[in-house]
Amino acid sequence: MAGRIGAMVLAVSIGAAVYTATEEVTRNNTYLLARMIHAEARGEGVQGMMMVGQCALDRVASDRFGDTLHDVVTAKGQFALSDTPGDEAMEVAEALIGGARYDADSDILYFRATTSSKDWYAPYLGHEGAHAYYGHREEELTS
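Above: the chain sequence. Below: its structure as tokens.
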């Protein structure tokens, strides 16, 4: 009987450690995403912030940019990061990490300032505020 109790305590301890580690990763990802959203889309309103944040998460889901949010957001020359995010950026990041999406039918993979004259080769998805967005719509991926 003592062996079974020891095994049960070990399983509970391992489960608690995994949960704590997952919680810490989620907290770190939320803060990192909020720092990026604040730097890239401050003043763009909730919709613009959602689209910028979705870009980073869609890049993680893609097989072309990096395996983790940290890899994607900190890749050289890709995104700016603020030292500390504002409250609105934190709320948007929390919603995105929790599963919210601005447009669930599109993969937003790139954005640029609407004042930029740089050519883009990905399909244009639209614009919001000072950013134009590019990527793929779900119907383009399945047809």
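The chain has a mean pLDDT of 79.
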